[in-house]
């Protein structure tokens, strides 16, 4: 069963909807229903595109549709609501929000064009000092999420490693030219856990922190692109375990703890990343006192990239709602990291991280 929802409309109105488009479709009176059966949206030739990725005053990059299904029908009809080249206005954003539309759909063969859409926006923003830095940070976050959603869904496609590097380079260039502060980045973060957004948030925070520490541009980019992949091993973990609201059994916990090794084995076999990046992915759960996993490394045995990622990973995990726990405030998260978890981290880096967040 496809987890994404379609909209049901009254049979008598369905023909009018197809004739007149979005204006005739009152989705406030529709109800959501999961797409059932063996067919998925991907098999129908469409992929989801979250509305939040669209930026007002920029041209729509390709035709965007909403799946609508008349009662009695087994498959949805994809109704075009936004057309390629159309200006996406603030009025459109409000209309879609009022209609409770959170996702539109793009034809699968046009998904690649969306990458250029984010590049166009970021190029325009680079030359526009009037755009708030917080808005630029938001677009960088959404661009990273767009890539992460695809690389987690297509783990054998090496093109996303290059795209991850391009995204990381864009983040670093904005860090250099726009002086993105911790608050600009952190306030863009999603508070409900998703594997995609977690990967983006950990990566962005790690890059910003390392830039703050005056790391070299190329090292920050390598760390950032590896950060986007750091949890790719969870693709091979049963989702029922990842989303379990109760305590894990010993066997389930052991299963989750295999994800860094699974990620390392996959990425190493593909030949996509250098040794520093592979070590980052493999070691991001290692602890300075040797109590981490999967190798039980300690101190200087742990790669500097992985030590940074471990701090940022834990901070985002603590401040994000999970199925099994509530989020805590950034202040409380840092207090926990300084007290209960202090032996897990590089003491010098943790001190600098706290200073950075305070900046």
From TrEMBL:
<feature type="domain" description="HD-GYP">
    <location>
        <begin position="173"/>
        <end position="359"/>
    </location>
</feature>
<protein>
    <submittedName>
        <fullName>HD domain-containing protein</fullName>
    </submittedName>
</protein>
<dbReference type="InterPro" id="IPR037522">
    <property type="entry name" value="HD_GYP_dom"/>
</dbReference>
<dbReference type="Pfam" id="PF13487">
    <property type="entry name" value="HD_5"/>
</dbReference>
<dbReference type="InterPro" id="IPR003607">
    <property type="entry name" value="HD/PDEase_dom"/>
</dbReference>
């Amino acid at each position: 069963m496809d987890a994404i929802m379609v909209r049901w409309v009254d049979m008598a109105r369905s023909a009018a909807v197809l004739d007149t488009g979005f204006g005739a479709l009152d989705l406030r009176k529709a109800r959501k229903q999961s797409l059932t059966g063996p067919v998925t949206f991907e098999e129908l030739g469409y992929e989801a595109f979250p509305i939040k990725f669209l930026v007002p005053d920029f041209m729509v990059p390709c035709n965007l549709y909403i799946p609508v299904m008349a009662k009695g029908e087994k498959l949805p009809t994809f109704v075009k609501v936004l057309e390629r080249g159309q200006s996406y206005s603030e009025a459109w954003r409000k209309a879609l929000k009022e209609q409770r539309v959170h996702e539109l759909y793009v034809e699968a063969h046009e998904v690649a064009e969306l990458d250029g859409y984010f590049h166009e926006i970021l190029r325009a923003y680079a030359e526009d000092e009037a755009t708030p830095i917080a808005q630029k940070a938001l677009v960088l976050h959404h661009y990273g999420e767009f890539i992460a959603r695809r690389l987690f869904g297509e783990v054998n496609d090496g093109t996303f490693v290059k795209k991850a590097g391009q995204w990381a380079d864009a983040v670093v260039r904005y860090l250099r030219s726009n002086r993105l502060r911790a608050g600009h980045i952190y306030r863009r973060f999603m508070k409900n856990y998703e594997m995609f957004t977690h990967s983006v948030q950990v990566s962005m925070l790690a890059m910003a922190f390392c830039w703050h520490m005056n790391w070299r541009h190329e090292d920050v980019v390598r760390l950032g692109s590896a950060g986007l992949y750091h949890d790719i091993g969870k693709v091979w973990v049963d989702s029922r375990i990842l989303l379990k609201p109760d305590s894990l059994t010993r066997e389930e916990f052991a299963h989750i703890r295999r994800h860094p090794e699974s990620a390392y084995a996959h990425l190493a076999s593909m030949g996509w990343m250098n040794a520093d990046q592979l070590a980052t992915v493999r070691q991001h759960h290692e602890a300075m006192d040797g109590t981490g996993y999967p190798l039980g490394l300690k101190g200087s045995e742990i790669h500097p990239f992985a030590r940074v990622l471990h701090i940022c990973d834990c901070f985002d995990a603590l401040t994000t709602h999970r199925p099994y726990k509530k989020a805590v405030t950034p202040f409380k998260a840092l207090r926990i990291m300084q007290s209960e978890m202090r032996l897990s981290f590089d003491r010098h880096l943790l001190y600098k991280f706290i200073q950075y967040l305070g900046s």
